[in-house]
Specification:
Blueprint: H1 15-28, H2 36-43, H3 48-58, H4 63-76, H5 80-84, H6 88-95, H7 101-118, H8 127-131, H9 138-147, H10 159-168, H11 176-186, H12 192-205
Helix pairs in contact: 2-3, 2-4, 3-4, 3-9, 6-7, 10-11, 10-12
The protein binds iron/sulfur cluster.
Length: about 250
């Protein structure tokens, strides 16, 4: 393995440093549990409607809960037309217990109805049209473009991508929208379709929000660890032998 390019301060990110991180992650996430939306996308041949609805359900919800709820829902309705025929109450029952299930049920139905009335029963294919759907923000829209429409022009930034890009020192930003724009400047387009998958998987398994496992992290030599004050125990030193984090 090539050594990580040396960096001591945030700001300019040499393309070799980004390449080192991305290649390391490609290798390291092999065999790790994938995010729920990626799994649903893979099992449904990147169906745009299912990617969009699964992403709506996934906000602030455990992956296993999202996956189970999306599976129940898609057993009943797999297209915008079929979904728009369900009542909000029926959708609520199918997706419970995802967090904010009442709001999400309303958005699932309203977005489906809008696809039927304005987009001929299909998922729209541009960022502008996607964010015009009820409940669909930039994160959902960019993920649909990347996973379902194979866009190579977008980066999907959620809390994991925002946090890790800042810890690595690739960006110095306060919120995900800012991070997305900063990543377009800091990284080459060839990495954009992979940033979400790699960093979300890393964020769920190693670079967690609290007590990141820096001692076990394959990116440690390349990471500036910006903002990291407390790190989790390493696997070897943890009596839990697993995550190394109390209670996790
Ligand atoms: S070294 Fe620590 S902060 Fe940096 S990516 Fe790894 S776990 Fe995250």
């Amino acid at each position: 393995m090539k050594a990580a390019p040396t960096r001591t301060k945030p700001g300019f990110v040499p393309s070799a440093a980004v390449e080192h991180v991305m290649r390391t992650l490609a290798r390291e996430i092999d065999g790790m549990e994938l995010p729920a939306v990626e799994k649903i996308s893979g099992s449904q041949q990147e169906d745009p409607f299912q990617v969009l609805i699964a992403t709506l359900l996934s906000a602030r919800t455990q992956d296993a809960t999202t996956h189970a709820a999306a599976t129940r829902l898609f057993r009943v309705a797999r297209t915008p037309r079929r979904m728009a025929r369900l009542t909000v109450k029926e959708i609520e029952k199918l997706i419970y217990p995802v967090s904010f299930y009442r709001n999400k049920a309303r958005f699932v139905r309203a977005a489906s109805e809008t696809m039927v009335t304005r987009f001929g029963g299909s998922v729209p294919t541009t960022l502008e049209e996607l964010v015009s759907l009820p409940g669909v923000g930039r994160k959902t829209a960019t993920l649909v473009l990347i996973l379902a429409f194979r866009s190579r022009q977008h980066v999907c930034v959620d809390t994991h991508v925002h946090r890790i890009a800042n810890r690595l020192g690739w960006v110095a930003t306060r919120e995900p929208g800012e991070t997305e724009q900063a990543l377009y400047r800091a990284t080459e387009p060839r990495w954009w379709p992979y940033i979400n998958l790699y960093l979300v998987t890393w964020g769920q398994n190693v670079c967690r929000p609290v007590y990141p496992r820096c001692g076990d992290c394959a990116l440690a030599a390349a990471c500036l660890k910006i903002g990291v004050t407390k790190i989790g125990k390493t696997r070897a030193s943890s009596p839990l032998g697993g995550t190394g984090q109390p209670g996790l």
